[in-house]
Amino acid sequence: MLTILFDGIAYGMLLFVLACGLAVTLGLMNFVNLAHGAFAMAGGYITAVLMNRMGVPFLATLPLAFIGPAILGLVLERTLYKRLYTRSHLDQVLFSIGLVFMAVAAIDYSFGSQQQLIQLPSWLQGRVDILGVQVGLYRSFIIVICGALVVALQLILTKTRFGSRLRAAVDDPRVARGLGINVSLIFATTFAFGSGLAGLGGALGAEILGLDPTFPLKFMIYFLIVVTVGGTTSITGPFLASLLLGIADVAGKYYVPSVGAFVIYTLMIVVLVLRPQGLFERAR
Amino acid sequence: MSTNIADHVRSSLVRRGRWGIGEILFWLIAAATLYFLPERHLILNEIAIIGLFALSLDLILGYAGIVSLGHAAFFGLGAYTAGILARDGLADPLLGLGAAAIAAAILGFVTSFLVLRGSDLTKLMVTLGVALVLGEIANQASWLTGGADGLQGITMGPILGLFEFDIFGTTAYAYSLTVTFLLFIVARRIVVSPYGLSLRSIRDNPLKARAVGIPVNRRLVAVYTLAAAYAGVAGALLAQTTQFVSLDVLAFHRSADVMLVLVIGGVGYLYGGLIGAIVFKVLQDVISAWTPQYWQFWIGLILVIIVLAGRERLTERVRTLWKGVAGRTAKSPETLPKTSTREV
Amino acid sequence: MTIALETKGLVKRFGGLVATDNVSFKLEHGARHALIGPNGAGKTTFINLLTGVIKPTAGQIFLEGQEITGLRPELRVQRGLARTFQINQLFPAMTPLETIGLAVSERLGGGRDWWRVTGSKREIIDEIVEIAQRFRLTDVLDERTSNLAYGKQRLLEIAVAFACRPRVLLLDEPAAGVPEAERHELLATVAALPRDVSVLLIEHDMDLVFSFADRISVLVNGALFTEGTVEEVSTDPRVRAVYLGESVDE
Ligand SMILES: Nc1ncnc2c1ncn2[C@@H]1O[C@H](COP(=O)(O)OP(=O)(O)OP(=O)(O)O)[C@@H](O)[C@H]1O
Ligand SMILES: [Mg+2]
Q: Which of B62, B119, B285, C59 could bond to C9 as cystine, CB 3.0-4.6 Å?
């Protein structure tokens, strides 16, 4: 029981790191980026390729799994995405689906369609028994890393100058511009950072979520659930939503495998219809 | 003087209802392919089906402004309904078609209430969710649907008891084309009717539509239900003419593809779906011959380019071109509205 | 005279802000009534409450004696309550002809008609022509609405509301933004509407108000401040003070 809860939390934390960039893009730029998962996939493949082909140790690949997608995100934001901020959601969706399709096919072309396996270092393998609860070492590792990231994000958002500008920009970009805040710079930085986090999440999650070219499509719906259920005006909303989703998904697959994802999708629809602002948001 | 204006008013209004030469030619050519392109009937059949599917999306997106990423839900439901009926011995195609339309319409009616409110994003998510739920159901209920193996053992009877399906797809194509044409006529009638006009007004400005007394929700429910039925028929046609149904009919890429098809052809003038289907299938044929696995890459690229180049402007151009060809002079081309108006 | 439209104790709160403060108001049959008040007084909010765009926090609304407080907006229109918007709310991609035709055919029950081509009914055509002429729109009937001159758009806004054949017409600053020269003409068109249509006009331009209205209500901070004939209100020093932004002791 507790093991499932534990796994669920690890899974949820991972989802949060994967999806929080999307929450910010949506909240800040009102942009529906269905291609967010492609950045996560990029991070995963960077780690997999570095480890399997070049023998780089797992931990050493993680910074690159962050930086690579971040740079990719920055470039794409500056060249393509920024043209679409003022467009309709439909256009944004079409555009980002296009990107997903391209990414999927490109990865398939370069690395084949098989699952990428990564060999975790031995100190991260196995389980230990803590107070009678079976705890996976790797999952503990994920919880620690992701937990640290969550705290760091929260601190950045609430304590730094950048954070307050970001929040101002989310609240009302026009007013923020009037206050002399360089909104477009904030957009680019945040987009890059969010893509980087997704990449890191993809790398960390390769072992748990699996990694193959269809990754962005498979997990797109999970990311979307996190942001639509969690709302986009804070990071606590998506965080809670991620945990909830993670635990529900793990528990669901364990206890009622035949019901599967059905429940989650249905719950998502119910939440969307009853609370279009998100579950944890006060209606504005 | 006022009779002059009255005549002018009438002719301006009814002009939209009249068939242009281009339109008639379009359908004549489609019919002619029955004789002149016998070796292409399989792919033409697919084009007719996808065209009908995209037409149904156009009804809700182009005329009512409802965005959907889950239109495959209705397509898939129609396909499974027709497929299961045929597998279980009810082999009459028209019966299957009717049942599929009704099943999809019921689902459309029920789920329409979910897309009445909320932003575009909410609608996209809800429609996507509905399709996912349905896909999950079809996957789990393998005793009924065959699950991941697909629905096997469909045998169709002759259409109207007269025309047997043949291996060249000629009967299939004739059947799909006829159904698509008939449903097209109905759709065309609808969009130039007062009801169709009220849909366009809702799409442009729902707040104002209410202010002139239009029961917005009821109109949207009606068109969503109708479009669902259309999509169900398209799905049924696919099931009947290919005699196979797999989970693929409910997959996300179906919903995305049909959106792409419509976007290629242009939203909001009914022919967009049909033209898009032709372009899409021909492209697929050409690209697949060249690089079969990575067809998806090129679809993606096309989508990205279309959006970057300004989808609405492109649509405008295609439509103007079409109107030029069709020989009609109706003014006031429509564009899709951005996310709807709020300020009161 | 009978009462066309009445509110009793109408209240609307937006969070802490009381935008409509216990407004009890009567619009008489056939009236030419003006509602004035400083910016942000809650005039548009009042109209939105009357037409059902937003729901009141408390209070009741009656149209010709029947309560309509909970009625959906479109049903209020069908009962004869139409309005224009302060900021143009039109169908940019449709022509004035289609816009007016829409309202007319909708009222005559045509909106459920999905088989006949729009414009195949004589009565609809005649009415479109009548309205187009009344509002001087005949020369632009086939233009795209978004291409119309602003003054024409304003006229169309009123024409559409009038096409609903309202018993009560609510006009939210119809002349706002219209060039000085066209304003009086526009208001004259409104004044020339059939006398059995009761009109409530919101307007900042006092000249227009005084020439148009027979009664005036003043709204301040969401509450009815005073009400009376043009004479009474125009000479009321407190009203002047409100408009000059001075505080007044009641
Ligand atoms: N939807 C809303 N949510 C919150 N506050 C609102 C809303 N609509 C209006 N308000 C507030 O209610 C008050 C009254 O606004 P309203 O638009 O009714 O004023 P008005 O009298 O029409 O002003 P104007 O002359 O500028 O048109 C304002 O303070 C406004 O900010
Ligand atoms: Mg106002």
A: C59
